[in-house]
Amino acid sequence: MYGWTGKILRINLSSKTYRQETYAEEFAHKWVGGRGFAVKILWDELKPGIDPLGPENKLIVAVGPIAGIPAPNTGKTVVAAKSPLTGGYGDGNLGSRVTIQLRKAGYDVLIIEGKAENPTYVTIEDDKVAFHSAAEIWGKGSYDTMDWLYAKYGRSIGILTIGQGGENLVRYAIIRSMEGRAGGRPGMGAVMGSKNLKAIVVKGTKNIPVADEEAIKKIGTDDLRQVGKIDKETGWSIQSTTGVLAWCNEVAALPVRNMRKTFHPDAWRIDGERLNEARVATYGCPNCTMRCGITILDKEGHEAEMDYENIGMLGSDLEIFELAQVGSLNFLCDDFGLDTISAGGTLAFYADAIDQGAVEGDFKFGDAERAKELLRLAAHREGVGELLAEGSLRMARRFGHNSEDYAMQVKGLEISAYNCKFIPGMALAFGTSAIGAHHKESWVITYEINETPRDSYGREKAQKVIELQRIRGGLFEFIVACRFPWVELGWDLEHYPVYFNKITGLDWQLEDFWQVSDRIYALIRAHFVREFPDWDRTRDYPPRVWFDPANADKEGPIAGKILDINKYDELLAHYYDLRGWDDRGIPTRRTAEKLGLSEEFAALEKIIKLKD
After folding, report:
1. E-strand stretches of 441-545
2. SS3 of 558, please?
3. How many CB atoms sit inside 10 A of residue 25's CB?
4. Most C-beta atoms within 10 A of its C-beta, which of 179, 258, 320, 443?
5. Is the Cβ–Cβ distance between 452 and 471 less than 8 Å?
6. Burial of 154 by CB count in 10 Å (0-12 exposed, 13-18 middle, 19+ buried)?
7. Coil, strand, or helix at residue 81?
8. Where are the beta strands (DSSP E) in 394-533?
C-alpha cells in the first residue's frame, strides 16, 4: 500500500503501554486520512454520553497521504476528540513538524487513551515510545514548554503541547505547535489536559511510502516554487489573512461589540496595512512558500503572531483598536493555549451581558488591560475565570435573561470573525459547519457579497455552501493540506488528484473525493445526533440576535436590514435537500446507504428513528 504507512500507534496513558496496529487498504480508500480517519475511529471507539474530559475520551492525531510530502502547504496535522465545548465531534488542524515526523516514524494515526497518574509527556521515536515526567513543565506556558523541549531534543522534532488553559480544562483550550501554530478550537487542548498529557514529541527516520517518488519529488518541489512565485507576484503575504479586515469593515461584516455592530471608524488602526508596518518577523508551516504568520511586538514586547481571526475577535469585537494591545491579547491566548476566536467571543459576550444587565461585572468594551487579566483568570480558572472558561453558551444558560440570544455561537462553538446579521449564505455556513460555528469549512462570504445578491436566500447559496464544505472541510481536511494556495492564490484544485495519485498509485479524479467528503459530513452529524437524540433543525440556526430588528444597523450599507428567520429556514431546507438529509437535519437511510454508512446508521437508529 503506497501513500499510507498502514499503521496506527495506540498509546494508553493509564497503563503506560503502547502498541502498533494495522488497518486495511479498504479503510484507507474509504476514509483517506486526517478528519476521515478521526471521525471513523471516534465513532467506533467512543460510547455515547461519555464525559469529554474523562479518561474514556480519546485524542486522535491523524495525517493523510499528502501530508508531509514535499508539495505546496502539506505540513498539516488533524487533532480530534469528543468536544468538551460542544459535546459532539470536535477537531482542528494545525501546521506542525509532527506532520512530517509522524509519517517518518511510520504512523498515520495516534490514538491517545486513558489518563496518566501524574503530569506526563510522551516521546515517539520510530518504534519506541517513552513516558516522561512533565513536572518541570506543568504549569508553564506553551512557549516556555516548547523551548524546554527543543533544548532537550533539538529543534527538528515535532511537538504538540498545551498551555495552562489545557491543563485547567478550559473548554476552548487548543493544542500548540511551533511559533504561532495552533488548532483544535472545540477544546482539543482541554482533552490533552484531562489526560495529564503536557506534550507529545515525535521524531522519525523512516521513508514515507510513495508510489512514484521521483515524480512527486519533482512535481511537488516545482509546485512549491510556483506557489511562492505567485505569492510574490500577487503580494498576498504582505498582509496575508489580515487584508480582509478593511474589506469586512467596508461591506458591514466586521465583528464589533459582540457583533452588535458591523463596522467601526477606528478599524483601520488594526488592519493589514498597519500590521505589515509593525512586522518584526514572519512565520509559516512546514512546506509553505506563502507564509501567513505576521509577527509584531505586543504591548509588553513579546513577539505576537497575528491573523485576521484573532485581530477581529480580540480587537474589533472587543472594541480594542490599539494594535499592540490586540497583540498582547493574542500572545496571551497562544501562551496559555486558548483559542483566540472563542476567547474573544466569550469576553465580548461577557461585556455585552454586563451591558444588558444579565450579570454584574467590571468589564467593559475597550478595556484591554482588564481583558488581559480576564484571559489569565480564565486560563487558570480563578475567580470569574471559572465562568469564562466554560464558553459563552454555558455562561448564557447560567445568566438567563434571554442572554443566549446574543451568545454568538452555534452548537456551543463561538462564531468566527464575520458578522452575518445580513449575510444569509455565510450564516448558513456557520449554522451547518460540521463542528460548530467555524469559518474555515465554507468561507462563502466573498462569493455571496461579490457575485450574488446579498439579500438572496436561493437554493444556489445552499449549493455553494455545500460545494465549499466538500473542498475546504472535506478534501483539505483528509488529504491533509492547507487550503490557502487554492483560496488565496488560485492554485487549481486539479493539482491535488495529481499529488494524490503519484503518492498512492491510484487513479482518482476530483469527483471521487466528494463522496468521501459527504461521507465524513454525514458521520460527523451522526456523532452529534448520537449525543443529542432530541436533535432538530434549530441546532443549525445562528444566534437569534441576527434575526432581531432591534439589532439592525442604524447607519451604513445595511442600515435597517437583518436576516429573515423564515427565509433562513427555507435556505436551510434547501441545504438539507441537497445533502439528502431529512427535515431535522439528519441523513436519511437512503443517503447513508449511498455513502456506505449503512452499518453506522443502523447503530444510530437504535437511538433515534431515521427517515427513508
Report:
1. none
2. coil
3. 10
4. 258
5. no
6. exposed
7. strand
8. 409-410, 413-414
Q: What pLDDT digit, counting tens, does each position of 47-76 carry?
A: 999 999 999 999 999 999 999 999 999 999
Q: 235-273 burial by CB neighbour count: b if 16+ within 10 A, else e? A: ebbbbbbbbbbbbbbebbbbbbbbbbbbbbeebeebbbe
Asked whether 115 and 55 are in contact (CB, 8 A), the reply is yes
Q: Kindly tell me the burial class for residue 384, based on how many C-beta atoms sit within 10 Å of its own C-beta (0-12, 13-18, 19 or more).
A: middle
pLDDT digits (tens, 9 = 90+) for 187-198: 999 999 999 999
C-alpha cell at 370: 482588564
Class of domain 7-203: alpha beta
Residue tagged 455545500 (cell numbers): 466
Cell triple for residue 443?
468561507
Q: Which residues 6+ apart lie within 8 Å of 163 measured at CB? A: 140, 141, 142, 145, 173, 176, 189, 334, 335, 336, 337, 338, 379
Q: 381-419: per-residue pLDDT in tens? A: 999 999 999 999 999 999 999 999 999 999 999 999 999
* CB 317, CB 344: distance < 8 Å: yes
DSSP state of 546: G
CA–CA dist 327, 269 (Å, integer):
13
CA dist 427 and 418 (Å) reads 9
pTM score over 0.85: yes
Which H, E and C letters describe 82-123, residue by residue? ECCCCCCEEEEEEECCHHHHHHHHCCCEEEEECCCCCCEEEE
Q: What is the DSSP letter of 436?
A: B
Assigned C-alpha cell, 465:
455552501
Give Cβ neighbours of residue 482 (< 8 Å, ≥ 6 apart).
72, 73, 74, 75, 76, 95, 285, 288, 476
Q: Which three cell numbers stand for residue 108?
A: 498515520
Bridge partners for 256 per DSSP: 261
